[in-house]
Amino acid sequence: MRLSLGHTMLEISYPLACLMTTILLIDHSMNIWICFLAALMHEGGHLLVLQCCHTPPRHIRLSLFDIAIVDRQTYRHTRSQALAITLAGITVNFLSALIGWLLWRITSWTWLPVFVTAHLTLGLFNALPVSSLDGGQALCLLLSQRYSPRTTQRILTVLSVAVLLPTACLGFYWLLKTRYNFTLLLVSLYLLIVLLKE
Predict the structure, then answer these.
(1) Structure pTM?
(2) Most exposed: 96, 145, 154, 171, by fewest CB within 10 Å?
(3) Nearest Cα to 160, choosing from 184, 133, 120, 142?
(4) In this predicted model, what pLDDT tens digit does every residue of 28-79 receive, in sequence order?
(5) What gap in Å lies between CA 11 and CA 57, rounded to an integer?
(6) 3-class secondary structure for 60-107?
(7) What is the C-alpha to C-alpha distance for residues 149 and 167, in angstroms, rounded to an integer?
(8) What would you report as the CA-atom Rg of the chain, rounded to the nearest whole angstrom?
Protein backbone atom coordinates (compact mmCIF):
# COMPACT_ATOMS: atom_id res chain seq x y z
CA MET A 1 0.00 0.00 0.00
CA ARG A 2 1.60 3.29 -1.13
CA LEU A 3 0.76 6.90 -0.35
CA SER A 4 2.42 10.02 -1.68
CA LEU A 5 3.18 12.74 0.88
CA GLY A 6 4.57 15.65 -1.12
CA HIS A 7 7.91 14.44 -2.52
CA THR A 8 8.03 11.47 -0.14
CA MET A 9 6.56 8.04 -0.86
CA LEU A 10 5.08 6.24 2.16
CA GLU A 11 4.82 2.47 1.79
CA ILE A 12 2.99 0.29 4.35
CA SER A 13 3.38 -3.47 3.99
CA TYR A 14 0.21 -5.57 3.90
CA PRO A 15 1.33 -7.86 6.77
CA LEU A 16 1.79 -4.78 8.99
CA ALA A 17 -1.60 -3.37 7.97
CA CYS A 18 -3.25 -6.73 8.76
CA LEU A 19 -1.46 -6.98 12.11
CA MET A 20 -2.41 -3.44 13.16
CA THR A 21 -6.04 -4.07 12.17
CA THR A 22 -6.09 -7.29 14.22
CA ILE A 23 -4.55 -5.50 17.21
CA LEU A 24 -7.11 -2.71 16.91
CA LEU A 25 -9.90 -5.29 17.12
CA ILE A 26 -8.39 -7.40 19.92
CA ASP A 27 -6.27 -5.17 22.19
CA HIS A 28 -8.42 -2.92 24.36
CA SER A 29 -5.58 -1.99 26.74
CA MET A 30 -3.96 0.28 24.11
CA ASN A 31 -0.47 -0.90 25.22
CA ILE A 32 0.48 -2.01 21.71
CA TRP A 33 -0.56 1.37 20.34
CA ILE A 34 1.64 3.14 22.91
CA CYS A 35 4.57 0.98 21.76
CA PHE A 36 3.78 1.75 18.11
CA LEU A 37 3.62 5.46 18.99
CA ALA A 38 7.11 5.19 20.55
CA ALA A 39 8.40 3.69 17.28
CA LEU A 40 6.76 6.46 15.23
CA MET A 41 8.22 9.13 17.52
CA HIS A 42 11.65 7.50 17.14
CA GLU A 43 11.43 7.72 13.35
CA GLY A 44 9.96 11.22 13.67
CA GLY A 45 13.23 12.27 15.33
CA HIS A 46 15.18 11.12 12.27
CA LEU A 47 12.73 12.88 9.95
CA LEU A 48 12.93 16.14 11.90
CA VAL A 49 16.73 16.28 11.66
CA LEU A 50 16.57 15.34 7.97
CA GLN A 51 14.21 18.28 7.42
CA CYS A 52 16.60 20.54 9.35
CA CYS A 53 19.37 19.41 6.98
CA HIS A 54 17.10 20.26 4.00
CA THR A 55 17.17 16.66 2.75
CA PRO A 56 13.66 15.22 3.14
CA PRO A 57 13.51 11.45 2.59
CA ARG A 58 12.55 9.98 -0.75
CA HIS A 59 10.85 6.89 0.63
CA ILE A 60 9.54 5.69 4.02
CA ARG A 61 8.79 1.98 4.28
CA LEU A 62 6.82 0.54 7.24
CA SER A 63 7.06 -3.23 7.42
CA LEU A 64 6.44 -5.92 10.01
CA PHE A 65 10.00 -5.79 11.40
CA ASP A 66 11.26 -2.27 10.78
CA ILE A 67 10.65 1.27 9.60
CA ALA A 68 13.11 2.27 6.90
CA ILE A 69 13.79 5.85 5.85
CA VAL A 70 15.54 6.20 2.50
CA ASP A 71 17.60 9.37 2.72
CA ARG A 72 17.38 11.48 -0.42
CA GLN A 73 20.92 12.88 -0.33
CA THR A 74 23.03 10.95 2.18
CA TYR A 75 26.28 11.86 0.45
CA ARG A 76 25.64 15.60 1.00
CA HIS A 77 25.64 15.36 4.79
CA THR A 78 28.68 16.27 6.82
CA ARG A 79 29.84 13.69 9.36
CA SER A 80 28.29 15.68 12.21
CA GLN A 81 24.96 15.96 10.34
CA ALA A 82 24.97 12.22 9.62
CA LEU A 83 25.68 11.51 13.29
CA ALA A 84 22.86 13.86 14.38
CA ILE A 85 20.43 12.17 11.97
CA THR A 86 21.47 8.72 13.20
CA LEU A 87 21.16 9.53 16.92
CA ALA A 88 17.97 11.62 16.64
CA GLY A 89 15.59 8.68 17.14
CA ILE A 90 17.37 7.44 20.27
CA THR A 91 17.45 11.00 21.64
CA VAL A 92 13.69 11.37 21.12
CA ASN A 93 13.08 8.07 22.94
CA PHE A 94 15.20 8.99 25.96
CA LEU A 95 13.74 12.51 26.20
CA SER A 96 10.20 11.14 25.88
CA ALA A 97 10.92 8.56 28.62
CA LEU A 98 12.24 11.30 30.91
CA ILE A 99 9.26 13.60 30.27
CA GLY A 100 6.86 10.67 30.70
CA TRP A 101 8.49 9.69 34.00
CA LEU A 102 8.29 13.28 35.31
CA LEU A 103 4.62 13.50 34.30
CA TRP A 104 3.91 10.15 35.97
CA ARG A 105 5.46 11.43 39.22
CA ILE A 106 3.14 14.46 39.07
CA THR A 107 -0.08 13.00 37.65
CA SER A 108 0.00 9.20 38.26
CA TRP A 109 -1.73 8.58 34.90
CA THR A 110 -1.92 4.81 34.52
CA TRP A 111 -0.74 4.66 30.88
CA LEU A 112 2.51 6.57 31.52
CA PRO A 113 4.57 3.61 32.87
CA VAL A 114 3.92 1.74 29.61
CA PHE A 115 4.85 4.90 27.65
CA VAL A 116 8.12 5.29 29.61
CA THR A 117 8.99 1.58 29.32
CA ALA A 118 8.30 1.54 25.57
CA HIS A 119 10.54 4.55 24.93
CA LEU A 120 13.34 3.30 27.20
CA THR A 121 13.29 -0.18 25.67
CA LEU A 122 13.25 1.14 22.11
CA GLY A 123 15.99 3.69 22.82
CA LEU A 124 18.27 1.19 24.58
CA PHE A 125 17.74 -1.49 21.93
CA ASN A 126 18.48 0.91 19.07
CA ALA A 127 21.62 2.11 20.88
CA LEU A 128 23.16 -1.39 20.66
CA PRO A 129 26.32 -1.51 18.48
CA VAL A 130 24.68 -3.63 15.78
CA SER A 131 25.25 -2.63 12.16
CA SER A 132 21.58 -2.30 11.19
CA LEU A 133 20.62 -0.34 14.33
CA ASP A 134 21.22 3.35 15.07
CA GLY A 135 23.98 2.57 17.59
CA GLY A 136 25.87 0.54 15.00
CA GLN A 137 25.48 3.20 12.33
CA ALA A 138 26.72 5.90 14.74
CA LEU A 139 29.68 3.70 15.69
CA CYS A 140 30.43 3.15 11.99
CA LEU A 141 30.57 6.91 11.44
CA LEU A 142 32.94 7.34 14.40
CA LEU A 143 35.19 4.39 13.44
CA SER A 144 35.42 5.55 9.82
CA GLN A 145 37.24 8.67 11.03
CA ARG A 146 40.13 6.50 12.19
CA TYR A 147 40.01 3.25 10.22
CA SER A 148 39.59 2.17 6.60
CA PRO A 149 36.09 1.18 5.44
CA ARG A 150 37.10 -2.50 5.40
CA THR A 151 38.48 -2.44 8.95
CA THR A 152 35.46 -0.45 10.16
CA GLN A 153 33.11 -3.05 8.67
CA ARG A 154 35.04 -5.92 10.25
CA ILE A 155 34.97 -4.32 13.70
CA LEU A 156 31.25 -3.62 13.36
CA THR A 157 30.48 -7.17 12.19
CA VAL A 158 32.37 -8.72 15.14
CA LEU A 159 30.63 -6.37 17.60
CA SER A 160 27.23 -7.08 16.04
CA VAL A 161 27.65 -10.84 16.39
CA ALA A 162 29.04 -10.44 19.94
CA VAL A 163 25.91 -8.49 20.92
CA LEU A 164 23.26 -10.41 18.95
CA LEU A 165 24.17 -13.96 20.03
CA PRO A 166 23.72 -13.28 23.78
CA THR A 167 20.62 -11.20 22.99
CA ALA A 168 19.12 -14.14 21.06
CA CYS A 169 19.97 -16.47 23.98
CA LEU A 170 18.29 -14.02 26.37
CA GLY A 171 15.28 -13.93 24.04
CA PHE A 172 15.11 -17.74 24.05
CA TYR A 173 15.33 -17.78 27.86
CA TRP A 174 12.59 -15.14 28.07
CA LEU A 175 10.39 -17.21 25.74
CA LEU A 176 10.83 -20.29 27.95
CA LYS A 177 10.11 -18.27 31.09
CA THR A 178 7.02 -16.44 29.85
CA ARG A 179 5.84 -19.17 27.42
CA TYR A 180 4.50 -16.53 25.02
CA ASN A 181 6.89 -13.57 24.64
CA PHE A 182 9.04 -14.34 21.60
CA THR A 183 9.67 -10.72 20.55
CA LEU A 184 13.32 -10.39 21.63
CA LEU A 185 14.24 -13.77 20.13
CA LEU A 186 12.49 -12.97 16.84
CA VAL A 187 14.08 -9.52 16.50
CA SER A 188 17.56 -10.87 17.37
CA LEU A 189 17.28 -13.66 14.80
CA TYR A 190 16.01 -11.19 12.19
CA LEU A 191 19.01 -8.88 12.82
CA LEU A 192 21.41 -11.86 12.62
CA ILE A 193 19.91 -12.86 9.26
CA VAL A 194 20.25 -9.26 7.99
CA LEU A 195 23.88 -9.26 9.18
CA LEU A 196 24.63 -12.55 7.39
CA LYS A 197 23.08 -11.22 4.15
CA GLU A 198 25.38 -8.18 4.29
Answers:
(1) 0.83
(2) 145
(3) 133
(4) 777 888 888 998 899 899 989 988 888 878 888 877 667 777 766 656 788 8
(5) 13
(6) EEECCCCEEEECCCHHHCCHHHHHHHHHHHHHHHHHHHHHHHHHHHHH
(7) 26
(8) 18
